[in-house]
Amino acid sequence: MSSSTFALHMATDKTLDQIAREGARRMLAQTLEQEVQAYLQEHAEERDEQGHRLVVRNGHKPPRTILTGSGPLEVRQPRVDDRRTDEQGNRFQFTSQILPPYLRKTKNVEELVPWLYLRGISSSAFGDALDALGFDGSGLSASSVGRMKQLWQSQWEDWSRRSLAGKRYVYFWADGIYFNIRLEEAPNNRVCVLVLMGATADGTKELIAVQDGYRESKESWEYLLRDVKRRGLEQGAKIATGDGALGFWQALAEVYPQTRAQRCWVHKTANVLDKMPRSIQPAAKHLLHEIYLSATRTDAFAAFDRFVSTYQAKYPKAVDCLVKDKDALMAFYDFPAEHWQHLRTTNPIESTFAGIRLRTDKTKGCGTRSACLSMVFKLAELAEKSWRKLNGSNLLADVLDGVPFVDGIRKAA
Question: Which end of the chain is more exposed for a tag (fewer CB within 10 A), N or C?
Answer without folding.
Answer: C
